[in-house]
């Protein structure tokens, strides 16, 4: 592989590393010679992913971490530095949703649980801001590093029902751009901050919304497919190439962008 695209011997932290998308990029990174740090909430899931990476010939460790706790993230940062001595890449893949922060089929906006709305926005926004600040500070001292945030199709288009998730992902896009400028201006362009905006991928959280028990698409699933020019849902591994590129020196003049990986969903007018 061209040296510009090489990530060999880089150290990458992946929050939400036990999820479908996080574990997929972890495996891809290991195959490219990246030293991977898997962060998650549950030790059994962390151990499972790390063991898979090690069996595949990768170099990986895992730590329990609560991404909305500054102390928890700081504790992990010390462990990572003790293990690998540096941090080159941060992928903020942690996130999620809660039923009370969504609008059910027979509900309207006034049925929204403000408590769960706050929890969802805290997880999806603060859960990326806090790691960015703590790991980003280490990158600033190193004078190099890459941060990749995870946005969504719901950030700048209305995706019905998921109001809390949408609001927090819109904030992520603004934070990505803001921090990219801050880091470029004050740290001589050596630290880049970008985001990806995945289209629709079937995972544990949305499976019941998109698929019927017989595997056919629900009405919501069909609506998404009809508005996706490539006429299918994405696969987790289809995010990996774009992430790899954004983390490599091949994208050394790219910062502050949000890259859609969506089968054309964001480009399509529906006509």
Q: How would you characterize this protein structure?
A:
The chain has helices spanning about 20-30, 45-55, 70-85, 115-140, 165-185, 205-210, 220-225, 240-245, and strands spanning about 10-15, 35-40, 60-65, 90, 145-150, 190-200, 260. The protein contains eight helices and seven strands; from the N terminus they run βαβαβαβαβαβαααβ. It has two domains: about 10-200 and about 235-260, NAD(P)-binding Rossmann-like Domain (Rossmann fold, 3-Layer(aba) Sandwich); about 200-235, no CATH class. It is of the alpha/beta class. The model has no long low-confidence stretch (mean pLDDT about 95).
Outline the secondary-structure elements:
Elements: E1 11-15, H1 20-31, E2 35-40, H2 43-55, E3 59-64, H3 70-84, E4 89-92, H4 114-142, E5 145-150, H5 163-186, E6 191-198, H6 207-210, H7 219-226, H8 240-247, E7 258-261
Parallel strand pairs: 1-2, 1-4, 2-3, 4-5, 5-6, 6-7
Helix pairs in contact: 3-4, 4-5
Which labels suit this protein?
271 residues; alpha/beta; Rossmann fold; 42% helix
Strand content: 5-15%
General form: globular
Secondary structure tally, helices: 8
Q: What is the overall pLDDT average?
A: 96
State the fourth-level CATH superfamily of the largest domain: NAD(P)-binding Rossmann-like Domain
The unreliable regions are: none
Number of structurally distinct domains: 2
N- to C-terminal separation? 41 Å
What is the CATH topology of the largest domain? Rossmann fold
Biggest sheet, strands in spatial order? 3-2-1-4-5-6-7
Please provide the ordered H/E string of secondary-structure elements.
EHEHEHEHEHEHHHE
Q: How many beta-strand elements?
A: 7
């Amino acid at each position: 592989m061209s040296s510009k695209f090489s990530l060999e011997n880089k150290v990458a932290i992946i929050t939400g590393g036990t999820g479908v998308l996080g574990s997929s990029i972890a495996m891809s990174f290991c195959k490219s010679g990246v030293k991977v740090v898997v962060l998650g909430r549950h030790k059994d899931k962390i151990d499972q992913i790390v063991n898979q990476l090690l069996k595949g010939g990768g170099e990986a460790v895992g730590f329990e971490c609560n991404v909305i706790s500054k102390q928890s993230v700081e504790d992990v940062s010390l462990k990572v530095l003790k293990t690998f001595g540096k941090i080159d890449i941060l992928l903020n893949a942690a996130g999620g949703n809660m039923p009370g922060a969504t609008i059910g089929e027979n509900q309207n906006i006034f049925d929204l649980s403000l408590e769960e709305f706050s929890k969802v926005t805290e997880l999806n926004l603060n859960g990326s801001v806090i790691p960015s600040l703590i790991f980003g500070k280490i990158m600033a001292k190193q004078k190099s590093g890459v941060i990749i945030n995870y946005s969504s199709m719901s950030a700048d288009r209305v995706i019905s029902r998921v109001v809390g998730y949408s609001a927090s992902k819109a904030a992520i896009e603004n934070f990505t751009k803001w921090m990219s400028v801050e880091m470029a201006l004050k740290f001589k362009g050596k630290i880049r901050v970008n985001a990806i905006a995945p289209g629709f991928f079937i995972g544990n959280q949305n499976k019941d919304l998109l698929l019927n028990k017989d595997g056919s698409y629900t009405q919501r699933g069909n609506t998404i497919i009809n508005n996706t020019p490539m006429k299918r849902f994405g696969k987790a591994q289809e995010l990996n190439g774009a992430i790899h590129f954004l983390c490599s020196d091949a994208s050394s003049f790219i910062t502050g962008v949000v890259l859609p990986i969506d089968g054309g969903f964001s480009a399509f007018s529906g006509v």
